[in-house]
User: What shape does this take?
Amino acid sequence: MVQTLDKRSEEVAELATIEQAPRNLRMSRAARRDLRDGVLLCMPYILGVVLLWLGPMLYSIFLITQKWNMLMPAKYVGAGNIKRMLADKLVSKALFNTAYYTFVGVPLQLAVAFALAVLLNLNIKGQSVFRTIYYLPSITPAVATAVVWVQMLNPQYGVINTVLGWFGVAPIKWLFDPTFAMPAFIMMSLFSVGPAMIIFLAGLQSVPPEVLEAATIDGANNWSRFWRVKVPIISPIVFFNMIMGIIGSFQVFTASFIMTRGGPQNATLFFVLYIYQQGFELFKMGYAATLSWLLFLVIMFFTAIQFGLSKRWVYYGGEL
Assistant: This one.
């Protein structure tokens, strides 16, 4: 009898525990209110991602197999857009121009930004004024910057040819010569290194002073402290600026669209400009979507390579 009562009491206790568990798992009124408020506050961003990013991205995959001019119903063409892309000579030309701009321009941009950051990290008078001057071109509207550079690069009365003339250099037809058009764009990009410069400067100022003091005690001179202490410590910042620079350079568009429209002789036909021409000038949205996904794959490819190589030189507090 006693054993039976004990067994029944255990069963009752077990049933009470099971009934109590869902109650414990239920959210309190305050927690539900916090969750509701959080979802409502995040909703603009969530809707923006779904409607303006994820939705168009998924729809562009559908357009790869379609022929659509935005006026008539889309027509299924299978792999026709891909075959056309493989046979299109301007695709390789645009990719070459973009790669040229990227692998020549980005290292120069990083070098200039890093040099300016080192100079601005010095304790000199008027430091804030110099920081403002060097960063100002980066916040200038892209259209205004392009218009100014068109005037500066004018072969007849441009200020750049005027300065070169002081040293006996003949006038150069910058934007009208296929040989010098791309170097002109790279030179123009060097004046917009403000964001990378600021990030480099923040990294240099975050180097622990005790590490530099320890290196000094060990007998390291200024040059050794710079290359063997500061540069390895800020290597993640160098890597970040390099990744962002490569991604941004593959997407260059505004300057070419305003200044040259891809000329002369397609010398400045960047890939994004070619996508724009196919999609919004020739109304070949299916082909433009196909080119867009090619650009996406190219950017992902080079980004993955950089992440793989970064293990050899980026310092994250452990071994290099």
In short: The two ends are 74 Å apart (CA to CA). The mean pLDDT is 88.
